[in-house]
Amino acid sequence: MILAGIDEAGYGPVLGPLVVGACAFEVPDGLESPDLWKRLKKVVSKNRSRSGRTLHINDSKLVYAPSQGLKELEQSVLAVAACLHEWPDDLDHFIRCVANHASPELAEHRWYIPNADEKFPIEHDAVSIRIRANGLKHEMERTGTRCVALSARVVSERPLNRLFNATRNKSNTLFSIASIHIDELVRKFGKQKLTIFCDRQGGRAHYGPMLRQMFDDWSLEVTEETEGRSVYRLIQGEHSVTILFAEKAESQSMSVAVASMLCKYLREALMGRFNAFWQGHQPGVAPTAGYYNDGHRFLKDIAATRVALGVNDSDLIRSR
């Protein structure tokens, strides 16, 4: 049985990348409503551990806050990633592991090129994370649990604006990116009792027509479409895939929570590069997270520098 989750970070800002992530775990067949937090409770928790003995895995908004820094988010994300991918030497290596498609696009934006002083891990130490990763691996082996997918689509400003122009709808753009993960998961795990749990895509409630178009070689059954929750089944012979879209999915599925945390970590890491670039050209400018009000403040602050560097608005500022 495969339990997969999809979530995003950076849907609302005017600056910085949009990141849509996916995570999937394999557990033994025959379990009723398997709860990964319960299966792995010796090493992971929905809540912050005072003793520091468990990895905090939950909605990224609960794990990370600017005042707390990246340390806790980074520890959990890299520990899970180490269960599937090789240990990365630097941030670019990590991006290649989880989002290899993104490297060429990021290289086209000079504010995402690393500087010589960049650290990795960014705020934590590698030794302690690797110890946590080993503990997680051991507990996953003991409980018959495997991480089988951890990936992200990182869409920087220029290609994101092209998608906005093509779809003319922000919600459609988000679904088109998430659908890449859905398609990959169905192709890879569609015959292994796959369930895909997705956070609501831009407030959308009806996904049937788009899923029918994506999977014309599968039959589609609409199981539920209510306020806050939409459930579908893809059927092909003896195989079926359940796809759920729900509000606050991060608190209901650990796979979604990990996807949420991966997205947030990648976005925050790239915004760290973004701010370092502009501060290098304009010392003293206050950093930004890219969200609407502060993003426009930041654009006003760097207006002269943008002109001096010849930066086009379409390469830096989202059109939607």
Description:
The protein is globular. It starts with a strand and ends with a helix. It has helices at residues 36-39, 60-63, 71-81, 91-99, 102-107, 126-143, 157-167, 170-189, 208-214, 254-281, 292-301, 303-309, 313-316; strands at 2-9, 18-26, 44-45, 55-56, 146-155, 194-199, 219-226, 229-236, 239-246. It has a 7-stranded mixed sheet, sandwiched between helices. The protein has a two-stranded parallel ribbon with strand order 3-4. The mean pLDDT is 94. The chain has 320 residues and is α/β, with parallel strands linked by helices. The protein contains 13 helices and 9 strands. Helix 3 packs across helix 10 (254-281). A hairpin with a 2-residue loop joins strand 8 (229-236) and strand 9 (239-246).
Topology:
Layout: E1 2-9, E2 18-26, H1 36-39, E3 44-45, E4 55-56, H2 60-63, H3 71-81, H4 91-99, H5 102-107, H6 126-143, E5 146-155, H7 157-167, H8 170-189, E6 194-199, H9 208-214, E7 219-226, E8 229-236, E9 239-246, H10 254-281, H11 292-301, H12 303-309, H13 313-316
Parallel strand pairs: 1-6, 3-4, 6-9
Antiparallel strand pairs: 1-2, 2-5, 7-8, 8-9
